[in-house]
Design a protein that fits this description.
- The chain is α+β, with helices and mostly antiparallel strands.
- The strands form 7 sheets. A 7-stranded mixed beta sheet has the order 2-3-4-1-7-8-9, with helices on both faces.
- Strand 3 (about 30) and strand 4 form a beta hairpin.
- The radius of gyration is 33 Å and the shape is globular.
């Protein structure tokens, strides 16, 4: 008898089906020799600082740093019921072992470990490691379960990543918030990503466009252009010299060029393509891709590889034979068989590249959402492209002389479409008569075949044109993902294991956090920093927003997965950085604090007589040793659907009462007026209502 724990109910159901378990119970599925349950994602998380010490409930700079000696875990409030189920199962004595069937990656290890540790279970752990939810892959995975100890390094890396995020997030966020009296959220990965957005926007805002000019001559179907000229007068003079004059082709060079087929998709390249082609956000692509994986239509989503392993060659060949049945725009004869170019064992770590599955051939694609169909189509066409012939074209480059001035022209002719034929077929199928951003035709002009050196062209037409230098483009989801992937590359040696901000599995959520926190915003396909985002980056020290440093940490986490560095070495770097950050933060000048948070005194604290200022959520005493505060949304008034506004706060501080006209009675279902009275005892605020009688005439 054994226990299986997956990450989600949908995955558990697929596993249970293969294992022959069908008894639906409260929180699990039972079978003859196994029970299958699930975690509901991150069921258990590290506790917040105030659980370690009640003093942390009030944010104070003097209490930093917060570095737990023993890390404590707690169940997410909305998931306690499922944890109770898992705890009981994990402590049953009739199981021989438990199978960690959470997603096969760093996060899956962390999700399982936290539940296992908090449950106090002593069951031996085995690991299910699969790259597909196909029945055959699940059976093969359970037939070759690995001992949980083989994943200790991966698990340790996942724990270190989570601790580092907690330490930097909790300490840096509290430090800069308390010092500047304004809520600032700092993250180990999201802050360097925001810094890239801000840097790009500053380059755009500071860009000064410059005009330049070109002259184009045309004759005999050939258009040739001059180099750039700074002055318009120079271009006009050249037009006057060349117009209606003869030109001679002084040089013709024909070059045959080849384009290799693209690699298969990893998660990041798929997210970039889905954004470029359909405008999907990285999070949307990941969400729909996960749904396709759980429906057994594609392989494991969170992969960072673009290759397959040698032992997959035969099954990949079989899959190619089924591909035209899945994708209506593919003809059988157009699908290549060059599987060898997909194989690279050295570049497949935990999971191979994204592929459709054989089970997808039986799928009614009409049952899928439009987004799922589009993403599946992208994966399928990329697979077909990757095994196709290279694209070959002939490029002609010629130089023309007119009035002793050189003009150049380029043209190209397709010799073999190769993989580009599949790309075009997919584009036409998805377009269905509509144009998209990807449908821009190749604007490289053709050049007549019969051109030769010494060929004279009589009476060319000449004209000038004005152009402007272009600023950098704002980031889109596509280009931001690419920048995150490349971040810090120059800091690493060629053989470095990993380069970039975040991982394929986390980059989408990082972008979403920036948007939800108000530090970035979407404008069409663009992602732009907000005023708050710019303000935060201007405030922070370089190392907290350094893409190179964060990319180096990601590299070290991967080295930890391989057992090449120890966790304490990594965490020591994190705590040293926090100490350095606190020293710098403590030196933020009062002038800078006032600039970031211009304060208006609205009254005097009834406890210590210090000035009271307005914050985002409360009216607080400026004396950090004093606990007095008037919370805008407080328990006493919330039932009456009322928030304390600035006028009310001024009255309460000055007179201890304020007249309120729009209080709501839940019992009578109407509004009413009353005097709100405030009484302060030992720093605690108590409210009451008074109903003064109206004088009779």
């Amino acid at each position: 008898m054994f226990l299986v724990i997956a990450e989600k109910p949908s995955v558990s159901q697929a596993l249970a089906k293969v294992l022959g378990a069908g008894g639906k119970e409260d929180g699990y599925i039972s079978g003859q020799d196994c029970i299958v349950s699930w975690c509901l994602g991150h069921l258990v998380e590290y506790v917040s600082p105030e659980i370690y010490d009640s003093k942390y409930a009030k944010w104070q700079f003097a209490d930093l740093p917060i570095i737990p000696e023993e890390w404590e875990l707690a169940v997410a409030k909305d998931k306690k019921k499922q944890f109770i189920v898992l705890k009981k199962l994990l402590n049953r004595d009739d199981f021989d072992y438990v199978v960690n069937a959470c997603d096969a990656g760093r996060e899956g290890e962390l999700i399982f470990k936290r539940v296992y540790d908090l449950s106090g279970s002593k069951l031996p752990v085995k690991r299910l490691w699969i790259s597909s939810m196909e029945d055959s892959a699940i059976r093969e995975g359970f037939d070759s379960l690995q001992d949980g100890s083989e994943f200790e390094n991966l698990c340790e890396a996942s724990v270190c990543r989570a601790k580092a995020d907690w330490l930097i997030g909790m300490n840096a966020t509290r430090a800069f918030t308390t010092k500047c009296y304004k809520r600032f959220t700092v993250g180990r990965v999201q802050t360097p990503t925001l810094a890239m957005l801000v840097e790009r926007q500053e380059a755009i805002d500071g860009f000064v466009k410059e005009a330049y000019y070109k002259v184009e001559i045309e004759g005999n179907g050939i258009r040739a252009v001059s180099g750039n000229m700074k002055e318009e007068t120079e271009s006009l003079a050249l037009v006057e010299r060349c117009n209606e004059k003869s030109a001679v082709i002084s040089n013709v060079e024909k070059i045959r060029k080849k384009s290799k087929p693209p690699k298969l998709y990893d998660l990041t390249t798929l997210q970039r393509e889905a954004n470029r082609f359909f405008g999907y956000t990285a999070q949307e692509t990941l969400r729909e891709l996960q749904a396709l994986y759980e429906a057994r239509l594609v392989t494991y989503p969170r992969t960072d590889s673009q290759y397959i392993t040698a032992d997959m060659e035969q099954t990949t060949m079989e899959l190619l034979g089924l591909l035209p049945e899945m994708l209506p725009f593919l003809q059988k004869e157009s699908v290549g068989r060059n599987v060898e170019c997909l194989i690279n064992n050295d570049k497949v770590s935990d999971h191979h590249a994204l592929l459709p599955t054989k089970e997808a051939v039986d799928q009614d694609f009409g049952e899928l959402s439009e987004m799922q169909r589009n993403i599946f189509g992208l994966i399928g066409q990329r697979f077909a492209q990757a095994v196709s012939e290279e694209s070959i074209y002939e490029e002609t480059v010629l130089t023309m002389l007119c009035e002793e001035h050189e003009f150049s022209a380029k043209g190209k002719a397709v010799v073999q479409f190769g993989f580009k034929g599949i790309e075009e077929a997919f584009r036409n199928f998805m377009r269905k008569g509509k144009s998209t951003d990807r449908d821009k035709a190749d604007d490289t002009p053709s050049i007549p075949e019969r051109v030769y050196e010494g060929m004279e062209i009589l009476k060319v037409n000449a004209e000038n044109s004005r152009h402007f230098s272009s600023p950098p483009k704002p980031y889109s989801e596509d280009t931001l993902l690419a920048a995150m992937e490349r971040a810090g590359n120059q800091e690493f040696e060629e053989e470095a294991e990993k380069k970039g901000l975040g991982t394929p599995a986390t980059r989408a959520s990082i972008i979403e956090k920036l948007v939800s926190s108000g530090y970035a915003k979407r404008s069409g396909k663009q992602i732009l920093p907000t005023a708050d985002g710019k303000e935060l980056i201007a405030l922070l020290p370089k190392y907290l927003k350094s893409a190179a440093m964060t990319a180096e940490w990601e590299n070290k986490l991967l080295l930890m997965e391989k057992g090449q560095i120890e966790s304490r070495e990594f965490l020591k770097e994190i705590t040293d950085l926090i100490d350095c950050m606190l020293k710098e933060c403590s030196n933020i000048s009062e002038e800078e604090q006032r600039r970031l948070h211009p304060k208006e005194e609205i009254g005097v604290c009834p406890v210590c007589k210090s000035p009271v200022y307005e914050g985002k959520k409360n009216f607080y005493c400026s004396n950090q040793e004093c606990s007095f505060a008037l919370w805008k949304d407080n328990r006493y008034l919330s039932s009456m659907k009322k928030l304390i506004d600035k006028k009310m706060a001024v009255d309460l501080l000055e007179k201890g009462c304020t007249r309120v006209k729009d209080l709501y009675s839940q019992k009578k279902k109407r509004t009413f007026s009353a005097d709100l009275l405030m009484k302060v005892e030992d720093g605690r605020v108590n409210f009451s209502l008074d109903f003064p009688k109206t004088k009779k005439k």
